[in-house]
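Batch manifest line 254
LIGAND: 2-phosphoglycolic acid
JOB: complex structure
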Amino acid sequence: MSSSVKPTHKFIIANWKANPASLKDLEKIQKGYFTLQAAKHVSVIACPSPIHQILEFSKGVYVGAQDVSISGNATGSWSAAMLVAAGASHCIIGHSERRLLGETDIDVRNKMYSLLETGVVPIVCIGESLRDDSGKYATVIRHQLRLLFNGLTVAQMGRIIIAYEPVWAIGAKAARPCSAVECAEMVLIIREELIRIVPGLLSQHITIVYGGSVDSDNAGSYLLEGGVQGLLIGRASLDVYQMRSIIRTVESLP
Ligand code: PGA
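JOB STATUS: finished
ARTIFACT:
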């Protein structure tokens, strides 16, 4: 599946992280996801934890993973080939919660290559830790993009989904929400950098999604004013009512 689809196509990516804790909650969420249906121009991608990977979803929902290993000698992890065998079509990589454990940009790049080789769509997280007043945050993002895209073929570039996730806006302890205007500013910076490194019109068509404290109240604003083509949702994705409401909002957008 190519990520560089029509600009009107939208992605809703659910990152369940290490949740839910109980089998009872798992069953509840699973049943709820089974009822989720999205319009043709909206792709819903559920990314459960690895032990919950083998789950049945409705036909309208893709299954993704939250990470991948590049080596077979990786106790506690799983490879891109295993993801394919388990039916995963997408995989989040470079999430800030994994970078906190020591993952580097080079590791993320290697994971991206490994996914591209097997046909799994990489959802590559980039994001600054701080919105400093001197604008260094733009340099962080430009550097991450250059490193990621360097050496890729055009076809490979076209398969990547970029997830802009400002680290300071993620999770229950987020310093504050990232506004749609701040998101739009970063999308411009990302597109500007992509023009430098991605040949031709593709730079304008690579999918960018936003993640960080997205819920049913603010989802529409990121798509309408934030300039992104989709959302990466953490906490709110465990609440099927919120997911349904977000899907409806996204479907109703122009
Ligand atoms: P959050 O998480 O929506 O709970 O802030 C987003 C993410 O970490 O991808």
